[in-house]
Amino acid sequence: MSLTLDISGFEALFAVNYQALCAASYRIVQDKDIAEDIVQDVFNKLWEKRGVTALNTPLKSYLFQTVIEQSLEYLKRYRLSFNIEAEFAEDTLVNGNLNEQAMALKGVSRRVNEAVRSLPEVCRMIFILSRFHKMSYAEIAAKLEIPQKMVEGQLRNAIRRLSRFLLY
Amino acid sequence: MKDEDVHLNLLSRYVSNEISLEEIEELLQWINEDPEREEILRDFQETWEIAKNYPENFKVDATAAWVRLRNTMTEPEPPKKINTRLIKKWIAAMAIFAMFMIGLIWGFKHLYI
Q1: Residue A42 lies in a domain
Q2: How far is A74 from chain B, CA to nearest CA, in Å?
Q3: Which segments of A30-147 does DSSP mark as H helices, in order?
Q4: Is A42 found in the same domain as A26?
Q5: What pLDDT, on the 0 to 100 scale, is given for residue B91?
Q6: ipTM over 0.85
Q7: Element (H, E) at A99
Q8: Is the minimum CB–CB distance between A36 and chain B shorter than 8 Å?
Q9: Residues of chain B with C-beta less than 8 angstroms from the C-beta of A14
Q10: DSSP letters of B12-47?
Q11: How do residues B61-109 score in pLDDT, each as one tens digit?
């Protein structure tokens, strides 16, 4: 199925999906401006290839998949490699500090935002990919180039930390 | 790995839908051994559920973004008008030429046989 879009169809596609796509990118890159840039870039490239692109997936899935991939690429390219050893070391120091943070934010709205943001980077990434993009442990391991055991452990840590932050 | 961690791993697998049937049995057994463990299961489920709102209050200005994007997009190409008259002339000319060549060859054959 080749992609034929006129400009008004393209604008409609943009208007309908823009916010959700930016949210998807934001969950990974943690920066709204960068998220918007990435999404606009994806649309721009889609427009440029509109005459020659053959899509095997529905357009909306294609957009989301591409935005997620580009967001992960952004992190790989512009951040130094994920500091995994440092994150592991951090886990042992977790408990006391976390309770303080949680108490300080009790009653403040957007606690979910704070809770997720407080997770260490790789831990958060794994949680996001599992929770929002329904990726299996194997898929996450492949995408982040880490062992599957690590995915499992980090997801466990994420949920445990989040539950302490959000529920008590 | 600590025993608790092993079973928290199972709980994570459960909420993220990664768990196998055998693992579910193991998990249920572990939960039944101690009533407090059901609390932990509920905590995990509730946390997983609450997180679905992330990011909360996330707003972007799609209209402004479209304007920015539009300015960087290359112009859509105007539909190319195909000049059919010229093509028809060419077809006619080629037909005449073809007939001419056929006549020539036919004439040659007659001269030489």
Answers
A1: yes
A2: 19
A3: 32-48, 59-78, 84-91, 94-104, 111-117, 121-133, 137-144
A4: yes
A5: 87
A6: no
A7: helix A94-104
A8: yes
A9: 62, 65-66, 69
A10: HHHHTT---HHHHHHHHHHHHT-THHHHHHHHHHHH
A11: 999 999 999 998 876 666 566 777 778 888 888 989 889 898 888 888 8
